[in-house]
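pasting for ref
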Amino acid sequence: MTAVKVSVKQGNYLAARTSLGTVCHTLQDFYSHSNWVELGSTDPYSTLIKPELPLSNLAGPNTKTCKSCVGDDCTDNILPEIIQQKLLTSGYFSLITPKKPAGKCSHGGFFDRTSYTEPTGGINKDDIASSHGFLHQRAANMAINATMEMLEDIRLAVGDLAFLRLMGLTQTSVLAIVFDSTGSLSAYIAEAKTMLFSFIDSIIGTSEEPSEYMLVLFSDLDAGSLIKTSNAETFKEQINSLSLLVNSNPGMCLSALLLALTRVPPSSDIFVYTDGPAKDSQLKSSVEAMIQSTKSKVNFLLTNPTLSRASSSKALSQSDIQLYRDLAHISGGQTIEVTLSTVSQAITLIGDEITSGQVTILQVNRNASQTESFSFVLDSTLSNVIVYITGDSPVFTLYSPTGVSQSSSVAAGPLGSILTVNSLMRLKLNSNNLTGEWKITVNSPNSYTLKVIGQSSMNVLVYFVEIFQGGHGDSWGQSYTRPFTGRNATLFVSVTGGDSVTVTDVLLVEASGSAVVNGTIKAVGTTDFLVNIDTIPEWAFVVQLRGLLNKSSTISRFQRQSPIQLKGSKITVVAQSQNVTQPGVPLNISFTVAANATGGNYIIRARTNQGFSVSVSSSLLVAAGGSAQGNITLITPSDTESGTDVTLTIEAEAPGSTDLNYATLRLTVSTASAVFSGHYSLSICLSVFCFFISYVIGL
């Protein structure tokens, strides 16, 4: 409870939700796994969420609590004296050993080995078929009421707006601006401020307004400082006070971007404003990994990148521009080239990137000169559909489902209107007759990217998971590392905002080519699916989902794509740690790097989202096909508030930067030495969750 409230206070809503999920699970399980309901209780046990109150009337360690069930009938297996004295107890459980203290209750169920030891049977109420399934509905209702009580406690502590952000019902993303503070931008600083101010003013008071603003400055010497505020006017004042250094050297652009990616919550929007190359381009792999880890979108605003400045060491080459384009493409963002005459158009493009309800329909990248056709499906839930093509001199022709066409040379045509900003073309489709299969043919002498986006209430959530087999059936949890190349993996896919959908295909599509890997789909809910991928490919990929939408008795096709580009790895990074760190106390964390392909000195990096001190050896010698162990020392400042969330990322990069993988640990700062642990939710939580969502929306 403390961790939830502190994380909300600090604006770290993802961490707060993670803690809230843990709290909900433990709180709700209490009513299924204990005898609180059997004792005749009609109200939740409020003491559970009030640490200042003691737990009372607990059955002692030597107190017998149960007798054996009669066959499968466990109706009266709790001893009558326990009920009469209203002693609180719960059931023992083990997958491994049948041992338990004499006379104690068991959890029960096929996988609980203690339930076969006298006294046999169990007392859990996880579902109607459980040992005490006859009390399942009462336990579920009690858990609902307890959850409401807990949510109300949190709401009163954090306030209504913060509570709604915690629930994801108002905007919680962060708008981060990474700004080049060197003097070569002095000719554009006024226009840059005008552009940024106009953009910020346009989103204040709208659904696109972020919960927090962040500014990171960089020069040729370092990544500079980081400024955060939740007040838009304060943020504008910080931008307005910017002073530029007299310098024309390449800047630490990727270091600053990495700092921003480390500090923002997932799914944030980051805009990088520069006119020069990255001095630290060797960090590209680390930036890619953090983009994929945080699922944040990065957009680059390049001022006059093609202007010839032969005498300047800061002149952008084509390879410099391509580096920025690659990173933007990996994140689902854009590279926007800005001149003094295109500031207003750039504001339009920036606005496109943070529109609420944005979904990706198609995104491809081509590195070779060729003519190629692409098809994509638009459904009836889509509006404000925009086609982007970024590259040097590409030409295209777009075809509607009815056969109407429009070429890139027609600025305002039958299918839409085209806005050209240097190397980026934006075609916004007319709002009529969008539904159906579209086709676009692109011919380019150089590399280019194609992206199709729109607004819709229906989107997809995609991430890799680890499958866990346990006493309550298979469960899964999100994997915070790259999948292993050449082996099988499992994706979790959830269709959000689509109540009546059928998913027909989940594909891994090559990011820079046409290769495809098909997944095997298993429904685990109405709109949730586990997708088995037999072999993770060598190449980078995006996840594409196709299916059928049943709306108003009409069945039509739909298509969505993950905006973030993903990739596998032949490196495994595994870290072992307790999940609590104490202020001022060094925490030692061991990790293992396994090299399944390349041996040699692996570069090791570690960082936290809080900027805490992390000590780790810069390299680790790993033999091909072998592994090596390293150690990290994390020091949390002594004045850190209890409940603060800490995300630690450990990277291992192969020799020659040929491969990279990472592991992510979530830690909570606590002044107590307790170690918290979680397990996977049971079916009783499903009943609670349905009411939980209804309660929040109603509130």
